[in-house]
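Q: My labmate handed me this sequence with no annotations at all. I'd like to see what the chain might look like in three dimensions before we decide whether it's worth expressing. Could you predict it?
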Amino acid sequence: MKTSNKGIEFIKSHEELRLKAYQCPAGVWTIGYGSTGGVRPGDVITEAQAEVKLREDLRTAEREVGRHKLNINQNQFDALVSFTFNVGSGSFRNSTLLKRIKENPNHPDIENQFGRWIYAKGRVLPGLVKRRKEEANLYTNGIYHL
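A: Here is what I predict for the chain of 146 residues:
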């Protein structure tokens, strides 16, 4: 399965396009639409390069979600790719969220599990609170924005 166009727009809506490298609230050097791989201070890219980096990063997240052979639909896949793109493959792989989905793709605790991932360096970030609510809503109800 691949991220739908609506899923890509959903992810972009949560990732401010930045053409100059910056440190995110977690202290990680980031550029484009939230790309972190190989980013160094002073890096600058074009919007077209940011789009390419996003597609590469999404393929990584898609592979991670796909490797678990989950019985999910397109909006659930898109929500999990957004989540994995943001928290990283290792965090998704080891999450209780994934465990609950494997138990039952409609497990009643899934929405709560999205909501646990709202911290950066021990601080609650309002942007993550909003993103997790929207990812949970997308996963549960198929709605791409609140």
